[in-house]
Design goal:
This protein has 97 residues and is mainly alpha-helical. It contains three helices and three strands.
């Protein structure tokens, strides 16, 4: 018995919605705990996530695609290892996968 293509599309969309919901929650939590990006070096204006490249957003991480991609990658790592997702950004940064 083959699956309906609509069912698989709905399931994929649900997973994406869950991922985006968690990413937005982590972004809000990071904004609550940090005024500027925790991976931004004020002295050299470098981004630690870009491995030595200058930050073009001056540490503002709310709209930063690099920071968002980092959080999305963390989500994928947690899901791949079947570990529970952190509830806030502090848990995300202190937990060792």
């Amino acid at each position: 018995m083959e699956k309906n293509p609509d069912e698989t599309l709905i399931k994929e969309k649900k997973v994406e919605d869950e991922k985006q919901k968690w990413v937005q929650k982590m972004l809000r939590s990071a904004k609550h705990h940090h005024k500027i990006c925790p991976y931004f070096d004020k002295k050299t204006t470098m981004c630690f996530l870009k491995l030595g490249s200058k930050c073009d957003r001056d540490g503002k991480f709310e709209i930063c695609p690099v920071f968002k991609q980092f959080i999305e990658n963390k989500y994928d790592e947690y899901k791949a290892k079947n570990k529970p997702l952190p509830v806030n950004f502090i848990d995300l940064t202190t937990d060792i996968i």
